[in-house]
Known about the structure:
This protein has twelve helices and ten strands. Helix 1 crosses helix 2 (58-66). It has a single domain (3-215, 263-303, 317-330), classed as Alpha-Beta Barrel (TIM Barrel), CATH 3.20.20. By secondary structure, the chain is α/β, with parallel strands linked by helices. The strands form two sheets. It has an eight-stranded parallel beta barrel, surrounded by five helices. A two-stranded antiparallel sheet has the order 1-2. Helix content is 36%, strand content 14%.
Amino acid sequence: xxxxxxxxxxxxxxxxxxxxxxxxxxxxxQDVATACVRKALDLGITTFDTxxxxxxxxxxxxxxxxxxxxxxxxxxxMTKAFFPTGTGKNDRGLSxxxxxxxxxxxxxxxxxxxxxxxxxxxxxxxxxxxxxMGAFADIVRAGKxxxxxxxxxxxxxxxxxxxLAAELGIQFVSSQPQYNMLWxxxxxxxxxxxxxxRITQVCWSPLAQGVLSGKxxxxxxxxxxxxxxxxxxxxxxxxxxxxxVLERVERLKPIAADLGVPLATLAxxxxxxxxxxxxxxxxxxxxxxLDDTVKxxxxxxxxxxxxxxxxxxxxxxxxxxxxxxxxxxxx
Length: 331
């Protein structure tokens, strides 16, 4: 395992982080969740990412149970607030009311006194940024979080947030975007600005929700998988589940084979090859799934390999910076 500095902080994170979106509380029970967390720890993963809204708050509860008894100083826990956690008008967003209530709920569910990084899960267009950042600053000063971060913010939003964080004397250290071989929308604008501001990326979906594991094909869909239709065919409404995309992904397998690794390892290593990336967040519904993804921490990709990947994927790669998800949240 590699360990990399997070943003402008002195804290290290494991280059592979375990996330529990779409697993804990949704597809796996507590016993399996605990087994996955313990496997992660055995493999050198020390960084764990979750959010209050995952599985209707159950994901945080399950992570807290799974980490029970683990030396708190030896791990880094990241969580987020923004999406609904209840039915009330104030059970969402980044108002001071919701942020303050959310951090307390997260700490209770995670069974900890603090999180290492507290993140704005999206940008809130209905709340003044000054209100949100002021609440974040109070959370840091109260010792309930060490650092702050954001997820899927645009360049302008990151700049404004970083300026306020500096004024308030707190450290804005991380951005959590979707980033993988197929989805590179942060490269034109977000990454350069984050490099300037000394903010690093903690990337979600490095496997493009399983597509870059190579398990999906235009005519072969694993039964019970998230993109399997009732008739056994492929659900094609998702942006990655298109025949032309799957055909290009299939052509990546010889590149992985030449390196002697599974495609999933190659995909995660590709994300880690970006010097602005501190960690890639992987999921697991079975402990053994982590064996392949963790190998990526020690796989350095040369320029020839990176060029081969680009040549294979060609125009199926999405690079449009307007696709950063904050734009979608605003609609």
